[in-house]
Each structure stands twice: as structure tokens, then as C-alpha cells.
Amino acid sequence: MTPVVSADPVRFTDLLWDASENVRRAIDDLEFLRLLGAGTLPLDAFRRYLEQDSLYLSGYVKSLSLLAARAPTPIAGAFWASAAASAMDEASSHEAMLTGGSLPSSTATPEPSPACLGYTSYLTATAATEPYPVAAAAVLPCFWIYADVGRSLAEAAKTVLDHDPDHPYARWVAAYDAPEFHAIVDAAKTFVDDAAAAATLDQREQMIDAFVVASRYELMFWDSALHPTPWPLAESAVYA
Questions:
Q1: Where does residue 108 fall: left (phi above 0), alpha (psi -120 to 50 degrees), or beta otherwise?
Q2: C-alpha dihedral sign at 232, 233, 237, 240
């Protein structure tokens, strides 16, 4: 699918990226990601991440579907709907990794962590109640930051894969640095640029706020895989 090309030479998405610089630097410094790229992340932490990401993707699909329904053009609606379908495929890939035997088994039923529930609730509420441009900006960090992380960790992942072609961590990193995924990210950015071009000044300010808030949730979500925050008075020890 070829997205509509924004005529504005100054991309609004560049403003979003700049506004989240401090958050993105903190993401790049996360111990979770450093260990993931090196292939030395504890197996239980990677399992926790996959379980939480599977729960997150379920909520993300709802957000993208709401966004697709509210899109101003059929092309934009088709793109967000396709992204929702891709997120479902991603969840299926997670499930295959969780049940493939390379990770520790677990009989506990995962429940959303505070970071996961907060993130999905924010995205769903934004997609359902805020103007389309604001909702589009809110869902963008999940595309863009994942691609940025995959690109930054790709070289480390390649080294790991050279020694162990079946290493699950390196395969995960390689998937998010794939050209096909970056093409989807570029398309998402263009649709957000187009939304900004049609938005009011107040809506553009809200778009920046939404992008930064979602980026903060990305930081919290990544970090909680290695440093989980249990729910107060939790009855299970899933996140202990």
C-alpha cells in the first residue's frame, strides 16, 4: 500500500521525535535492552516480556481498529486496519515462542502488569475519545520506537545469531530490524504527518503530548520485564 505523501517539507513527526528525546535516551540505556541485544537476558525475564507483550498486543489491536474506523480517508483506514491484523500475527508469533520449549515453562495465567494495563488503557481511551490526529500520534511510538530499538540492537543480534542461529532473543531483534517492518513504520509516520496537516493548532499540541505519554509507557513497559512492579496485595507471585 502506498501512503499519501505529505507535501510539507518539515515533517511533524520529526517534532514528535524531538519531543521524546529524553525518554528515548532512557530507553536506549535500559538494562533489559542491553542484555537482550547481547543474548544474555535471563530466560524468565524474556518470557515475562513476551507474556506481557501478548497482552499488550490484544489491547493495541483494539486501539488500531478504533483508529481505522475513525480515519478520514479509506486509504488511512485500510492502513490502520492492516496494522491491527499485523499485530494479531505478532501475538501469534509470541505464542509460538512461549510454547516452543526454548523458554521456561509456566502454568500461571499471566495478568497485565501495571505498565501494560496503563499503556493499553491509555491507547484505547485515546483512540476512542480523542480527535483522530491525537489518536494517530498516540499509537505511533509502538511502531517507531520498536523499529529504532531493533536497528540499534541489530549488530549485537547479528553477532549472537552467528554463534547460535536459533537464539530467540537475536531472532526477535532481527524481526524488528527487518526492511518490511521499517516500511510499515515509515507509512505510519506519513499518515501521522497527514493527520497533523489537517489538525488544528490545539490538536497538534495534543499530538505532541500524546506521543510523549505513549513513549513514556514504552519505557515503563520495557523496564518492567526485567524489573517488574507487582500489583499491591497481589495474590500471585507472577511478577515477584
A1: beta
A2: positive
**208 vs 210: CA distance, rounded Å:** 5
Q: What does the pLDDT read at residue 196?
A: 98
Name the DSSP letter for residue 1.
-
By residue count, the chain amounts to 240
C-beta atoms surrounding 8 within 10 Å: 10
What number of other Cβ atoms are within 10 A of residue 230's Cβ? 13
Ranges 62-66, 89-93, 187-191: which has the least confidence: 89-93
More confident residue, 97 or 84: 84
Burial class (CB in 10 A: 0-12, 13-18, 19+), 1: exposed
